[in-house]
Fold this sequence. Notes:
The structure is a homodimer. By secondary structure, chain A is an alpha+beta fold. In chain A, about 40% of the residues lie in helices and about 25% in strands. The N and C termini of chain A lie far apart (about 40 Å).
Amino acid sequence: MLCAEAGERMTSSRLRTYELILAANGPIKAYDVIDRFHPEGAAKPPTVYRALSFLEQMGLIHRIESLNAFVACDTHDQHSASEHTAGFLLCECCGQSEEIAIPNVTDIETRAAKTGFKVNHITLEARGLCQACQSDQ
Amino acid sequence: MLCAEAGERMTSSRLRTYELILAANGPIKAYDVIDRFHPEGAAKPPTVYRALSFLEQMGLIHRIESLNAFVACDTHDQHSASEHTAGFLLCECCGQSEEIAIPNVTDIETRAAKTGFKVNHITLEARGLCQACQSDQ
DNA sequence: AGGGCCAATGTTACAATATTACATTAATTG
DNA sequence: CAATTAATGTAATATTGTAACATTGGCCCT
């Protein structure tokens, strides 16, 4: 929250969206946020999509591309929002995610630089099975 | 193609889909394939989505998660389909993609193993600017 | 060749995800 | 307080992807 103040205003839509993502305790879909937004009925999609964009820019949440879902950032107090990029371990069985630092970012940038490519942002998502779900098998 | 024969049949829908992806010379969206499928009108979505799934399983194409798009595999002759996973450099300006080997896969697996996570598949997508688009600025 | 099987396709409908456009309200600043 | 910009409300629609079920086509077996 302190982190967000550095940027812009934490309005009630944004806070409500962030609360729902925190409460989800794992990746949550935009339309699940939309459905839970009000006690009675659903929110309008733009309300939530705008809040999601904002929260992502602030580094409070991450979008998981391979799931079309969003998850609260574990480590937003450890990074500036701008440079903040993270990797994820995504369990294909239970749906839980674990945020990890991307190993060897410089190796990726070096490889990119070989063809003159300048990296702005890295998406790293590893799908597999978490420990608990392996035991269950 | 030889590679595909190892698995199943390269039917005409599958071939047509693959041709369109090869011809696209960069990531192409499913609905662009659908629109171009027939000379006259569009294909039905399931026709193309089925073909895309098949081609991906065969290792002939890759799905780019952060673009909801598909691109022909550069290196399917160098890998068995099952173990085949690739990284991508995606230019935010011109839309071109470059396929790269994922550096330090073992580092990712080792990090995952710290919490008992078993990795099945890695998505690595680096967005940024290709050389040509940097020069243009 | 005829019958049985399964893979693949056709077809319709719909679900899920996301954005555009424009009107309105709220906050901030000079 | 007026002017300006940021944020929100609202309706409609665009984009992406799947479910369900009927039908066809290839293949194997005797």
